[in-house]
Amino acid sequence: MRTFLTIAALGLLAACHDPARPEAPAQGKVTVFTGGTIYTGLADQPTVNAVIVGEDGRIIATAPPSSEDWSEDEVTLVDLGGAVMFPGFTDAHSHLLGIGQRELTLNLEGTASVAELVDRIDAEVADKAPGEIIFGRGWIETGWPEGRMPLADDLDPVSPDNPVILMRADGHALVANTAALKAADIYDITGDSDGGRVERDEETGKATGMVIDEAMYPVMQLVAEPSDSDIREAYEIGAKLYVSRGWTGTHNMSVDRNHAVLLKSMDDEGLMPLRLYNAYNENGFDIAKAHEYETDTIQNRAVKIYMDGALGSRGALLIQPYSDRPDTRGLEILDENALHNLMMDAEEDEVQLAIHAIGDLANRRILDTYEDLGYGPDLRWRIEHAQILAPEDIARLGQLGLIASMQPSHAIGDLKFAPDRLGMDRLGGAYAWESLLESGAVVAGGSDAPVEVGSPLIEFYAAVARKGLNGETGEGWHPEQALTREQALALFTSSAAYAAFQEDDLGTIEPGKLADFTVFDRDLMTIPEDEILEAQAVMTVVAGDIVWRVPSSSE
């Protein structure tokens, strides 16, 4: 029921503040969000009736405990209309540039087979001049009826003269046709680069079309570098898409140092509605060290580095060989000595490391090096993905204080092929969210978009259901690793805030914190799990400003 009362004195609300947090000024018009279910993320007061926000974008009070005593002429009232509000959902691992670029290039997301992929390329060739490059991304072979990855032999008949380069969804592998392989000078026998592999025919030695991790560079050099305007457009489109899905912020991974000034200028111009916590490529170490080019919604203090590749393309670095390819244990992108030196540099410069590690050996090397250096939880360094852990290493991660930055949707996609890659015995330590939480580890939740869709609803569903999007499951999926609704909410709110040193400002709805809110049309905490995917974002609020709301039927 909608209530219209009067705030007697904003000064009285200061009693609700935690004295450790800055108080909002007790003057000026305030905004009241009410008229729906409001989850705070707090154990001692999980829901409130209203949230009162000051002109500075911080929460002044919640009701209860403060009085619901305000009038329309004293407040700007935002009626939730029965919708359900949460602390702002933050994607703790995405690639915002890639999200925008996915919308602007040939988007192969959802391609259902090799045959459909070939048909898509056949249609593209019709509009291209001879020799013009065809570039797309987003395919993933999971569930394809052919039961394999695409090859140059599939693409050559429909595109003999146009180089074709198609990036796998995870960004760790691509398929290229023969024209592209020859243009990149890797078709004939060459040595593989460190941390990469060109798949070759066993008899002829010719490249088959699959190119993995570091070996992709010669192929990707064929694709024209995007202009500054292209990059700006991709960021703008990605940010708009993300707030429309209900994300209030993201931990933006693998950012090029040259984009720091651009992102700041976009925010200064009002073109970046999303809160950004940037983790730069290694070339941005100095930016993260100095916290350069920051704004009130952009922070720069982290660097992203890579230990290995991805499980799907057999680039994840494993202790034992792949079950379906005993000739390989994956790819070592960063060796232990280099990791040791980077850790020492980062600790000295107070730079947070976000370390990509998927395979159990890659994760173990991080744990061993971190422990050998005597580091602890105060650094808040992160393992990005932490997908496959040896069971004996799960407890170590929590004990050492490393943060597991994980993406629930990876499990419900990867577990369709992980049994083949790993065998059943190694799945006990795969995507082990519940076990990690029990060990005392902080688990921050993300999506890794554009590898995945980038939907908070898909990620929340995957965390609590641990089933495919159609409800399917299978042997080795370990349903005991699924999370409760409260645990899942924390992944994208309070834990994401902690992983970015932002727990004093974000992650829960309480006085003194920034007013970042995500509003859905139904209650994710109570509806049946199969209805979570039917929910819709209806409003996204950043620092008290409504940066997106669902268009009305008349618009």
Automatic annotation (TrEMBL):
One of its GO terms (molecular function) is hydrolase activity, acting on carbon-nitrogen (but not peptide) bonds. Gene3D superfamilies: 3.10.310.70, Metal-dependent hydrolases (3.20.20.140), Urease, subunit C, domain 1 (2.30.40.10). Signal peptide: none annotated. SUPFAM superfamilies: Composite domain of metallo-dependent hydrolases, Metallo-dependent hydrolases. InterPro entries: Amidohydro_3, Metal-dep_hydrolase_composite, Metal_Hydrolase, YtcJ-like. Residues 77-547 form the Amidohydrolase domain. This is Amidohydrolase 3 domain-containing protein. It comes from Hyphomonas beringensis. The lineage of its organism: Bacteria, Pseudomonadati, Pseudomonadota, Alphaproteobacteria, Hyphomonadales.
